[in-house]
Automatic annotation (TrEMBL), chain B:
InterPro entries: Cyt_oxidase_maturation_cbb3 (IPR004714). This is Cbb3-type cytochrome oxidase maturation protein. PANTHER family: FIXS PROTEIN (PTHR41532:SF1). The chain crosses the membrane at residues 6-23. It holds the Pfam family FixS. The keyword Transmembrane helix applies. The keyword Signal does not apply. Keywords: Membrane, Transmembrane, Transmembrane helix.
Amino acid sequence: MNGSDKGDGSGEGNPCFHCGQPVPAGETWPLQIGGHTRAMCCVGCQSVARLIVDSGCEDFYLRRTVPSARVDPEQLLPPELALVDLPLQAQHHDAPATDDQAAELVLSIDGLRCSACVWLIEKYLARLPGIRMAEMNVASARLHIRRDPALCPTSVILRGLRGLGYTAYPFDPLRQGEQARRASRRLFRQLFIAGLSMMQVMMYAVPVYMTHEGIDPDMMSLMRWASLFLTIPAVFYSALPFFTGAWAGLRARAPGMDLPVAIGIAAAFAGSAIATWRGEGEIWFDSVSMFIFLLLASRYLETAARRRSASALERMQQAFPASALVLGGYPQQRDTTLVAAAQLQPGDVILARPGDTIAADASLIEGETELDLALLSGESRPQSFQPGQEAPGGAVNLSQPVLLRVVRTTRDSTLAALTRLAEQAGQGKPALAQWADLVASRFVVALLLLAAATFLAWHLIDPSRAWATAIAVLVVSCPCALSLATPSALAAATDRLLREGTLVVRGNVLEALQRADTIVFDKTGTLTQGRPQLTAFWSEAPQSRMLAMAAAMERGSLHPLARALVQEAMEQQVRPVDVTMLESVTGAGMQCQIDGVLHRIGARRFVADIAGDVLPGALNQPVAAGAGAVYLGSSAGWLARFDLADALRSDAVTTVAAFRRLGLRTILLSGDQPEVCADVATATGITDVVAGCTPQGKLDYVRQLQQGGAVVAIVGDGINDAAMLRAGDVSFAMGKGAALAQISADAVIMSDHLQAVADCAGMAQRTMRIVRQNLVWATLYNFLAIPAAAFGLLDPWMSAVGMSLSSLLVVGNALRLSRRARGPGRVVDEASSDVAAPAPALAGCV
Amino acid sequence: MEALYLLIPLSTLLVFVAIWIFFRASDSGQFDDLEGPAMRILHDDDAVPGKDAPGAP
């Protein structure tokens, strides 16, 4: 906590005082903090630090234990912030908000790093005028604020928090699964009660197991009654999820894991209660409460791990409403106002700047441009649009600012239609018979038959012991280890994957992934980077010199190909040459003077105007399918041609190979042109290629595969993939892809490494292996214990100890999954080599 | 040993009191954030001691 170890942060060579990253040489952003001059790495960090110091919170730097996050100046103040105050009024105009409602505000906060962040946020807000209370909930990353709305509008608070370097969004309880949170709170209560009950009942059970002389009958009876009362909350409150689950399973005619649990609990409790009432016979209150507690504990851990994934995903997805710049007075005036996209009406004229997403289906009325439809259709190459053409909502404007007239409202636009397609796809999804539940339900039926047989047999031999022995069969077998086998392993694996950057949002991912026999990859943005990269260079002159010229000229351009060239120059550490009179020529390229000679870069026609019509041989090679060519020339002649195309991800080949080794059929399903897809398939080793698919086509193809009996895993990133992601048996969305794809997928690869999908498959294999081991163990235990109980050989304490030990063993085995000992690359190989072994063993014992 | 005849019912009663207290605490939101209070206790409004402490009030 002491700041003295931070030393003097002034001068060069030290890391940035705010974020701890290196300060670029020659570019320090100094700031006076606590009497010292500290160097910052960028204007973003500097402005955040200045706000912290100016608001009197500079103690933050002494309190924090880890450096703060680096601040991207562009992210500091998004213009959409102004919209935050507007929709509130629009939404509530029919039901005017009371003062109380307006005064309460809940925000989602991202970017907390250590305890000092909590201190800084609360202290900073406390100093704003109009704030009555600000309290940070660290566990759920939510900030509760009570304020005077007139003095302190939402946008001021959000702007302040952004200024401090934290991402804050208005919290929407409906959207962000408030219901799930309430359910988990209930589960926590039930777990707590079960634990309390278990500990107390055990206090009365242990003396009975320990004693040799026997206990005074009156005392015994008292202890039994006490145990009965203490077990009541566990059975009638904590065990509710099992009873409702069992009932739901019965009604759906698919008895699941909950049924034996519910019957076990009910029978053991009823039997014990009757024994207590009569004053004779065995009681199993300790077993009942312990059983409930252990089951709830593993269930709680599993849902907690999944909820952490879900909330990480929520925070990542942009919570601002889509917006548009409207020209209200067109064509007389050109002033723009920012409105929420949902408010757009047909006929409105909107401005789309380069980089903007077109908010609704609209026809181009002024300017011509190139639009990126990659997320909508999967086409990797930008499409050029002329005035009069209709652009789909959701397309990204690439080159020029253009004016468009809205044709359809956002509700009816292309993007919304794709969203609906994805929703419908979800409804048709084949109901997954949970594999573990299938095993369990067979076990249940066998167990119930055995218990009934035991009861009948003992009824003939010794009617007084019939009821007790039948219950002993149910309780000793109490599929404790059996039911812990799956959830504990899933919880450990989900938690481990979360730490490695894969968010498992739905429960079936690991189980479905290890059964999958077909994997479908999208192309653009999934197997490829989704952005152009330099793939070929044609020139007589050395590449570095040409790249230096190109980078210098393209610096001022927003075109994606131009940006890719600048990026390439930076990566190769080529220093741009000096240019003068740099200017942009709309729709064509850039021109400038280098050493007094006119140079042009861009479209072929544009350069040909000064370099001559005839291309030299090297530059005249055919351009590969899907690639774009940028020409460079001067008034002295042609200089170079750069071919840029959407390049493969570096881990695409190894990932596809990993799945092929696992024996999966690999399919490339893309909306792009067939030649481009064929190239990518050849490079990665994918056998089946389906190109030119519409979103509906992709969905149909996946359904067709499923009807043929295939279990389909899907990896995608675009809006056009959303429907098939939803329909697939298990699906992954890339972390940098469209939000709609991420919502539709079962898991999200936050790290944006394709390799993570293969790692996940390896993890799925290991998880299922652990589950099988657990099930084998639990089944063996039951094989020994159930006959022993059926023949009346087992004392209750024996079954209690046996059950606890087998449960501990199962949980301990599952926890091996969360260990991080092995490198991620090896997991796949290891799993693929020995996955076949345990399967026959399982088949034999179920 | 006769004391047990009183103590066992009493302990049972105590458990139910504990359950009631737990429910009240849970309703008032005490278990909603199990991490924040541990962080907050380290940061009161005192100035942080240290040789180069900035101009704290």
